[in-house]
Structures are given as C-alpha cells and as structure tokens.
Amino acid sequence: MSNIRAVAELAGVSVATVSRALQQPDLVSAKTKAKVLAAVEEVGYKPNLMAVKFRSGKTHNLVVLVPTVANVFFARVISGMQQAAAEKGYSLLLANTQGDQDIEASYAKMVQTSQADGLIQLRAHNPFGETPDDDSMLPMVNACEVLDQQQFPTVMLDNRAAARSMTEHLIKLGHRRIAMVKGPQRSPLTRDRLAGYQDALTAAGIAFDEQLLCPGNFSLQSGHKAAATLLALPQPPTAIFCENDEMAIGVVQRVKQSGLRIPQDVSVAGFDDISFAAYCDPPLTTIAQPAEEFGSTAVNLLIDILQGRLKKAPKVILPFELVLRASTGPAPATVAPSLTGGQDD
Amino acid sequence: MSNIRAVAELAGVSVATVSRALQQPDLVSAKTKAKVLAAVEEVGYKPNLMAVKFRSGKTHNLVVLVPTVANVFFARVISGMQQAAAEKGYSLLLANTQGDQDIEASYAKMVQTSQADGLIQLRAHNPFGETPDDDSMLPMVNACEVLDQQQFPTVMLDNRAAARSMTEHLIKLGHRRIAMVKGPQRSPLTRDRLAGYQDALTAAGIAFDEQLLCPGNFSLQSGHKAAATLLALPQPPTAIFCENDEMAIGVVQRVKQSGLRIPQDVSVAGFDDISFAAYCDPPLTTIAQPAEEFGSTAVNLLIDILQGRLKKAPKVILPFELVLRASTGPAPATVAPSLTGGQDD
DNA sequence: TCAAATGATGATACCGGTTACATCTCATCT
DNA sequence: AGATGAGATGTAACCGGTATCATCATTTGA
Questions:
Q1: Are both B295 and B278 inside the same structural domain?
Q2: What beta strand segments (E) does A83-153 contain?
Q3: Is residue B172 one of the residues assigned to a domain?
Q4: 3-class secondary structure, B107
Q5: Which of B247, B270, B288 represents a domain boundary (last residue)?
Q6: Most CB atoms closer than 10 Å: which of A287, B259, B303, B306?
Q7: Stated in angstroms, how far is B307 CA from C6 C1'?
Q8: Same-domain pairing of B163 and B278
Q9: What percent of chain B clears pLDDT 90, i.e. is strictly above it?
Q10: What pLDDT, in 10s, does the model give residues A150-208?
Q11: Is the Cβ of B93 closer than 8 Å to some Cβ of chain A?
C-alpha cells in the first residue's frame, strides 16, 4: 500500500505539500500541484482513511440498532437512513439486535470505543445503560419506538392519534365489537396505540371489553393465531384492528379460513402500510407511516448533534395517514344470526 | 476521553505495561495487573479501537452492497450476514446501491481506502472496475446473483435447476401454456431461470412461445402489470411462473381481479418463499431458498479470504426446495379439447 | 560464586495522515 | 535600499494504541 510519503518522495516535495495539494489545492502553486498529482497517479496512491479518522477522532460511522432487519417496515426505515447518511458522507453500521439488550449494549459500546460517532436506536431502550448524571447530550437518536420521558432527540409518530383515527373509522362504519391485536407486551408503541383505541371507544360510548384484546408479536403467525382466538369467542368481534400489517395479513388468512368474508362479516385493519398491504385480498385498510422519512430524519438529527448544531433534544412527530381500502366495511347488520358459536375450519 | 497514558501515569507504570495488562495478562505480575485495572476503572478508560484498527491495518469492517435493503429476500440475507459477522467480530457496513454502478464503485472504494477489509456484492458486477491483470484475490465475495466466469468466490443457488424443477411440476399438472414473468433484463439470475424453464419445456416436448415471456423487475407492481398483459393474450397461459414471490403476489391479485380462480383457472408460482408467500390467498407454491445461509456463507467465505485461509475461489451452491402450496393445481380442461398436446398424467 | 536463564517492566519507534509553526523567496511600499 | 508582508514549502509534533528491544532484578545451574 503506497502512502503519502512515497508520493512526496516521488514528487520531490514534503508530505505536508502533498497533503495540501490534495486537501486545500489553493494553497499550493500550480506546478507543484501538477507534480504531486502526477506522483499520486504513478504510485496509485489511495489515502488511508482509517488514519484520517483516527487522527481526526471522527469516524463518520453511525451505528443503527435494529430489532430485526428482516422486517419490511424497518427495512424501509433503514433505506431512508442509508440515503440520508450517504448524502452527508456518513456510513451506517448495522446491528441486528434481536431485541437482546446485551447485544444492544455491545454495539452501543462502539460509540464509546470511538468506532462510531453516534447511534440510532429503533427501540425504546437506552443501550448505554443507566443515564449518566450529567445530562450531556449523548450522541443518540431514538426513532419509531420511543419512550416519552426520553431525554434524547426522538422521531416518532403520534401512535395514539393514529390508532384513535383508525378506531373511529371502524366505529363510523357501525362496528361496536372491535378487537385489537397488540404488539409486544412492554412496547410503548403498543401502549400508545392501545390508548388511542380506548380513546375512540370512550368517545363513542362503547364499553371496553378486555376479551377483545389479543397479544401478538408483529409476526404473520401471531396474527393468524390471534384471529383464531378472537373468532372462537362467544361474541366474536366484527372488526379486528392489528398493530401492524403483518399481523393483519395473518388475521385475514385465518378469517377467510373460517369461511367468513372480509369485510362483509369481519373488517380487518392494519398499521404501517407495507407494500404487501395493497396486494392483500382484500386490500388492507391501514395507517401509512413515512418509513423512509423516519430514517432520514433520525440520521439528520444525529448528524446535527454530532456537529454541535443542536442545543436541545427535539421531538419530531411525523404525520400518519389513514389509508382506506377494501378490508374494512360496514358492520354486519345482524346482531347474530345463529352462528355465535363460530365454526372452525 | 482518557487514554492509555493517563492510565499508565495513574497506575505508576509504563504504557507498555498497561497494554500488556489488558491484552496479555499472563505477562504481567499479579499486583501490577491489579494496579492497572484499578486505574482503568478510576479514569473510566475505554480503548480507542480506531487507533487499534489504524495501527493493525485491519478494520474488521465488511462492506455489503445491496441493491435495495427494502427487499424481503435481501433483508433475510443481510440478517444471516449480520449474525455470522458478529460471531467473528466483524461489523457490516451497509450500502444501498439502488443498482447504480457509480454508487457501487464509491462504496467499493472503502476497501481500497482501508475503511473496510472486504466486500460482499449481491449483484453480478465487479464494483472494483475492470479486473486487475494479476489475479490476486481481491477481498470480495459474490452472493445470490452471480456471473459464471467470475473469478471471485461465490455463493449461489442452482437457479437453472430450480426453475426447471418448478416448470416440471407445472407440466406434470398438465399445463402446456406456462408463462414466465422475468426479472430485470440483464440479470444472470433471470437468464438461468429462463434456461431452466426452457429445459423443462424442451424435455416435455412443449414448444417455446415467446409471447409467454413477460418482463418484470421483482416488484409487486410489475407482477400485477405482467398478469394483465398475459391475460389479454388471445391464448392466455394456464400457469404463470414468476421469478420472485413479490411478482407472484402481484400476479395473484390481478388474476383474481379478472374473475379467474387460482388454481382452478390459472396456476401461479413464485420464487424465494418469503414469509408472505404462505399467507397469500391461495398460499403460494414457490421455491424456497436458504436466504440467511446465503448471508452467513458469504461472510464466512470472505473472512476466510481475509485471514488467508483460502487458496482458490470456491463456488458454493446452496440447495433449494420446491414448496408446494395451493396456488398451483391441475390445468383446466382445455377450452379446445383437441388432443394436439399429447399425454396427461 | 559467577554465568546464564527467566521474568517483569520501561523506553520508544511506528502506523499514515494533518497541521501548527518555521523558513525561505519575492514583490511591494516608503 | 531596507522593511514588511504575502505566498509557497518544509519540519516535526501529534493522534493512541502495539510491539520491539533494552534494562534490570531474580532465580537457576554448574
């Protein structure tokens, strides 16, 4: 590997001149510059950027903690991050944490050991461990799933309002028994969406029925399983609102397997508006989130912090959009014909 | 940021001793080690790994060039890479190239500028530009989409055999007019799958009909569009084989929109076995690929190269599996019962 | 008892850039 | 002409580790 000293020797100048010729060409004379560039060419010089990063103390790397990259929504978020980072000359170090806090912590250490300048967390944890006493702003941004008492900059959706909006849509269609398939237990995201759901019920004077809440984990399988549970209830729901699209797609399948029609017998709604949502049968009513924008905003915020342009930790709230498709429709007129028992496959 | 010299001073030893106490504890006496560790604790010393990487010339970073991370299949591959890399102490630098060769080249430069040790390419390009004369092994592995005359180590599927296998399945079901929805034009992947399709046709004595080939780009939309074209043919196909599952899902929707039933009127098959394939209506017959294994194998191969354990560029071929679900079924009794076609099963 | 071997530790060069400061050359001004 | 300053270039410190070699103390062996 040729280095700057080899170039300097060949060009007959000092290393400082070579460095200047490449970094601040205005400071060197035209003919020196020419000599240097020729020498660079001749020895095939490529600067060792590791040395630069070491010297400058800036790596221009950003660590991203993702629960699972193999998730359609996160994939879009990452895509947005990548774009924004590339534009600013940063690279992304991707960490698949599988939700494991030890793995998170080990990657977060990359910031402390100067392997990365900052960190983006897509989960509501603080991977640095307990918050330091001094509230000096750690180079971290929290996106998507956010804890409210967070002292970090965050990018989030108003999940409560979004869930309320969807629930209101269902109520307006005449539904009274609206089930909710939840995400992981302690997720603030689930908590907020649940709150929005309850807000809408309360506003419409509908009693909250614990039985209509079903656990899930954002997977297709868990949606499928949840639907089975819900349909087996003595009084099954006429609408099922899922906290993400994957679960909704699982629900759709299970509902159809029961011989019920969507939306005539049961309405189904999702959350995220992943690309597959529009290609469901029937196409899925859902909440669209600007996934790529989550990513780009988070990256830009982080870079602002790193470059000292941010005084206070901002909270950015991105807009959602209710996307109405064919999976939701008017509640069935029937109070209950006679199939309250719910037939199996 | 505290450094090793601060620790040395506090512990009353030399920097060399501190380094040894942390790296090769056996070389240091017990009480010195204790002093050092206490000092490390006291100043909160975290080694600057950037300095280590610079000194050692090894970054332990691997660049991954992905056409689009927001692709279900690639997301799984990346997940497998991440896992394998983490186990060996490497990090992944993710690059979303959008298929742009300039972007690819700019990321490939990270290897040449010592920001990464090696590179994994998921497309059949050589991002380093024209191959160097000396066939010294560049630290690169090519996975998924592979050019055959490649001098790099590769990890791939026998796409030709897989496509042949699927086509044979359709032929066995009595289909004679089998359409193929292709991937991007110049992709070797498309070329191989097409060849396998033709192999099966030839073996079964079915004439190849150019009209039944439809362009696509691996997106849901392109599948939808392709189906529209195919169904409008004077003699539409009775089976549609798509080069990936997304397109197949798009096809399924379009076919159903035409009022045709799957598989009674038209069979549809995909490729990849993404998670959504099993949740289609009807569930999709497809070819399963070990996506995560693609990733882990590629990473392990690359690390073998980097650590000099590999003499010749190996070609690894991973197994596929024909996954039969409900989207394929017997060919409909032909509108024209004339027996030009020949034998059924 | 002295030489040689062993073990523990220290001093410092080194990796490859950047950059503060020094030096040198001219041109300009009074 | 001498002083001043601008412009071009060189010298070397520096970033923070690692590793080589030197040094010194202690033990072992003949």
A1: no
A2: 91-96, 118-121, 140-143
A3: yes
A4: helix
A5: B288
A6: A287
A7: 34
A8: yes
A9: 82
A10: 788 999 999 999 999 999 999 999 999 999 999 998 889 999 999 999 999 999 999 99
A11: yes
